[in-house]
Amino acid sequence: MIISSNDIISYIERAEAHYKNNQYQALQSVIGDIQEYVTLLSEPEDFARYYRIYMLYLGVYEEMNMPVLKSYLQGLIDYGQVQASDFEYVCSFYEACEQSVYEDALVRYPYNDTIQLHYAFKLQNEKRYQDAILVLKYLLECYPALTEARFLLWDIQAAQLEYIRDSDEEADCNELLDLASATHNKSVLKGLQLDERLDLPSQTLAHMHVAMWENKSIDNKALWNSEWKHLEITDRTRMLLVDYFQSFMRYDMVSQIIKDPGEPQLPEEDYSNFEEFKVYMQDFANSGWQLAQHYYLRYGDSAYYHTKDRNVLNQCVQQGLTLNPKNPNLFVLKARAFFFVKNYKQTGEAYHEAFRNGLRMSEYLFYLLEVNSRIESWQGILDIVEQFHSRQPATLKTLFFKARALVKFSRFDEALVVINEALEDFPLPPHSYAPWLYNLRMIIHMNNQNYTAFFEDMQSEINYYKIGDSDYCSTMNLCVEALLEMDDYKECHKYAIYNHEQGQLAPELYPVFKWICYYDYLPKPEDLAPASEADLVKMPTTFIDFRNNGLIHWILKNFDAAIGNLSQAAHMANNKAFYLKMVASCAEDSFDNAEALSAYKTAKEQAPEASDYKTFFKLYNFYNEENEPKKALETLQHSIQSYPDYTFFDFPKDEYNMMLRSHKLLSQQLEDIEGYIKYSAMFLSKDQPSVQALYDQLTHIKTHFSSDDFLLHNVLEQLLQYDEDFGEEELELLKNVKSSIITSYFT
């Protein structure tokens, strides 16, 4: 069998596929075939491809054969085919890889963060902490967004600090201060406060650092104003204070403390071996390059959040990116500058650039959530959250944005599942998305007319606020909406008047406030302007526009316009039944019974789940007035069957017994003699029946049973007993009936 170089290349391709699919047994077999004929290859690129797959094959085994791996790396170098990724792979075996490989790699690729990180792991493993700290400081000077490197630096600095403290040799006080400051070691910092070997600015740093960890931010603000700002402090100390106050979002303090550290002194890239490169790393780490970028970042943050100075913000972005055109944090600042002027397209592009230059995926997606929220791209938010959750565990923030988008899409059931997960599975600290999640759930409860749960969540939400602040009053505004739809106008008035007095009642709720004062005769504040045509929205388009126009027209007694606007609002509303009943009430006020009846019927048909006994009773009255006894009786009976509790409490079985009387009279209208007799018998079965009921029965007997003397006698005897005003006519009739009975049955 003749083997060609193309056959070997196909073997290499198969080997690459086996490795990718973790098929190591098959990979071993193919590697053996390649080794037998590898000399047939002629191109350096083909040899390089074989060397790389063989190096990966070596990594499959638990114990790496480092001499063989290094020889293949050297082969790549000799063929002129070596790449940074080849060194990255070899250097990842930091427990076995030799120092010389790292030295060669770092001189070749001085800005490769992966190689530098592997080297730091090697140095940590060998307890060469000082060298590791230098490498990581240089790495973070080049790439400040490398969180893994920052955490590793912390661990190594803490280990170096413990090593120095355990050593019998006298420690360098400046190194101790540097390590203790970096790791926030309070016990060491407290000891350094009185160390006379330190100069005054260094002692001040130790004092300030201890105060930052032991005092409240408000106390440290007072210390700055009374003492610290008068002391000589280094740029490093000043930036430490800036970061401290920035973490508490005290941007007013940031603008007071921050100071331009000056131009960084960057060393020249003049090195040819590793020792010279170490000197370059040290000089670069101490150049102030990162400090200057950090200054522009923090000063820009202060301009964005505190002073709102757009010019300063733009200058910080421009000068910072001139200093380092690849700093992802400065691209984030650039995005905020565009966000500040509502240029959301450029905002998104700046965030994309930040991500391309090293911004973490989680932060990148968080920023995009904020942009999509501002432009109300709810589907965009759902897509971003899905992308985030495919890479990272869910957070309270991502669940909030997802729930909010689902609420905006009226996908309330899905939103409720997300909100419940967020509120049940995550800590809910004071400064979190928890109150906003409760607020979203309140909106869902209001949509479902679950007002008990609504007010339970309201109490949970306002526990996060200070009474009377803007967030608190915003929640009260939502309560005004809910109480209006609950028909609880007195309570609605209390909430509305509170927010009005705080100057926090939402503008769209003033028509509601004016209407409940008008409709329920509730007190109106003296400073509340009367309703007028100026309150009307000229070209209404939204539910709120139509509702408010309807209420204002109602107050102005423009009933036709009120009914038209409220009907349109009902068509657009979640709580359709409430607004249809409001249309009916407005029609009743205008004595338009036909319109009122139509509205109540529509409410009963289109939203039967929201109907109540008042709706049925209103319908009964209208049918009764319109002389439709059959529909009136059906409606009345449905009301009693559906709402027995309300019927029992609102219509007691007193002397008048409205419910029973209505049934009796409607049966009479329908000429239902059997029904009439039944309901009359119920009326008369009491120990002391109603006099009016007895007279009704007398009239019925005279009309239908005038020949039944016993029936007439019994009713007349009861009337004689209970009616103090028993008339002469009835008395004469009773005498005649008695005579007739005696004559007919007892003579």
From TrEMBL:
SUPFAM superfamilies: TPR-like (SSF48452). InterPro entries: TPR-like_helical_dom_sf. It comes from the Bacteria. This is Tetratricopeptide repeat protein.
